[in-house]
Design goal:
Layout lengths: L4 H19 L4 H8 L3 H13 L3 E6 L10 E5 L6 E6 L3 E7 L5 E8 L6 H19 L6 E6 L18 H13 L4 E6 H12 L8 E6 L3 E7 L2 E3 L8
Parallel strand pairs: 3-6, 6-7
Antiparallel strand pairs: 1-2, 3-4, 4-5, 8-9, 9-10
């Protein structure tokens, strides 16, 4: 069944934004060449993304050709801010970035093993709020949590795992309550490491690989045909 017009537009917009994020500023002609979309379709998506405030003209191409230089379009990096939490058994680190992945603020705090669950959750949430304020973010678009343990692929929640403190599981609900306009997602730390290596590290340009994670325990992440594989129970790897 073919995609509906609204779905097709969303797919095209996402494709264009990913290219602009990866390649930097591009002309409409370059977007046409890289996406394989028609000229009218590219013109429509450029207008749509510009009206939404996600992209803007950042310069001219400077190409040697007849007529005026083509406009270069780039992502408006401060259009939204994202927070990433690295949650450990006795600490939490928060990094806030813009839409181009540039770090705007970072904060860390130890959370002792004798800290009560409520206090530990409050410390972590306050740390997120402090980092967002330091980054100049009026609000956070997305909060992503990287944590040890299994993530339920259906609910997206952290499963009960031996050795993990209770505050890990309560953190998601607390963030959703304090930051109701932000999307809060949880992912296994090894899976996130694999995605980072695929984008900017040793696995860049590779569609299939396995990442072995050696820390307090041993874990692995599996990427097949460019996609992270979680498995039916979330325990692939």
């Amino acid at each position: 069944m073919p995609a509906s017009p609204s779905t097709a537009r969303a797919i095209n917009d996402r494709l264009a934004l990913r290219l602009l994020q990866r390649e930097g500023p591009l002309t409409a002609g370059q977007l046409k060449q890289l996406t394989g979309l028609s000229r009218p379709t590219v013109a429509d998506l450029v207008e749509r993304l510009a009206l939404s405030g996600l992209i803007t003209v950042v310069g001219e191409s400077g190409e040697q050709r007849r007529g005026p230089n083509a406009r270069l379009y780039g992502i408006v990096a401060d259009r939204a801010h994202l927070a990433a939490l690295d949650v450990r058994t006795e600490s939490v680190t928060v990094t806030v970035t813009d839409l181009l992945g540039r770090e705007r603020a970072e904060a860390s705090a130890p959370i002792g093993g004798d800290t009560g669950t409520g206090d530990a959750v409050e410390q972590a949430v306050t740390l997120v709020e402090r980092a967002a304020k330091e980054a100049g973010a009026e609000r956070l678009h997305t909060v992503a949590i990287g944590a040890p343990g299994l993530i339920d692929p259906v609910t997206g929640e952290l499963r009960d795992s031996t050795g993990l403190p209770e505050w890990h599981r309560r953190l998601v609900a607390a963030l959703q309550q304090r930051l109701p306009r932000a999307a809060v997602i949880v992912e296994n730390e090894t899976n996130l490491a694999a995605l980072a290596e695929q984008r900017d590290g040793a696995a860049r340009g590779r569609d299939t690989f396995v990442l072995l994670w050696l820390g307090h325990g041993t874990g692995a992440a599996v990427v097949l045909d460019g996609a992270l594989r979680r498995g039916a129970s979330g325990g692939t790897g």
